[in-house]
Amino acid sequence: MLIDINAYVGHWPFQQLQYNTCEKLLKRMNQFGVAISVISNLNGIFYKNTQSANEELYEELKSNKRFRDAFVPFAVINPIYAGWREDFDTCINKMGMKGLRLYPKYHDYDITDPACIELVKRARDKGIPVAFNLRMIDSRQRSWMDIDYVVGTPKPEWNLKNILPIIKAVPDAKFIILNLANATKLADEEMALVKKTNLLIDTSGRSINDMGVELKNFGKEKFAFGTHSPILDYVTGQLRIESLYDTEADAQTKELLRSGNAKRLIGI
């Protein structure tokens, strides 16, 4: 069984996308044997009011009963936008969304902003995970209208260290790190923090170029299948699991990566 913890519907302003509706994504999932996809609405990254995107996703999911079992919706919340607490309550308690995706770079706040910490604590109290994308697209191909996050500028792409402050602030929350890019090297103290945190890293990011080494460094409980679809291709994340040698991952470990770890963290 495959559970994709990193997929989207919606639009990206600077790139034409395919398979970016629930109907088209479900066909793609069936083609590649994916049973469930965790999805958010890309539009929420760019709408001033992210709740509009959550409502769009909610209505799309209601439009076809086949979507009910195939998709797990995560809400996009901007904690520095007025009314975010009501948006959180609506998404989780009324719409039944199972987690959050936050975009500090796109919504222009610091990851340790008091409002962000409060939001993560609220998610913790509800028992739902909070996901952070280290990057959405390759910054070398960015539009001049996109945010400034080119490596070497004052606000470069994030690496794993950039997520640690929010983990330190709310260490008992559930976290998902998506599209892991750039450096993964951590000091011993930082690695100890990651290992004891209830956290998953998806397999879509370019830094997952040696899955066997990453499993050895972080542990088999820290990774789960993810595609970053429809922005990235649909198979690389899966190949990183299926290409593991038996000496790197036994059958049980591969099942954890395919679906077991996702089921545990997300509660599906």
UniProtKB/TrEMBL annotation:
What are the residue boundaries of the Amidohydrolase-related domain, all occurrences included?
Answer: 50-267
Among InterPro entries, the record links this protein to: Amidohydro-rel, Metal_Hydrolase
* Gene3D superfamilies tied to this protein: Metal-dependent hydrolases (3.20.20.140)
Q: Name one GO molecular function term.
A: hydrolase activity
Give the protein name, as stated in the record.
Amidohydrolase-related domain-containing protein
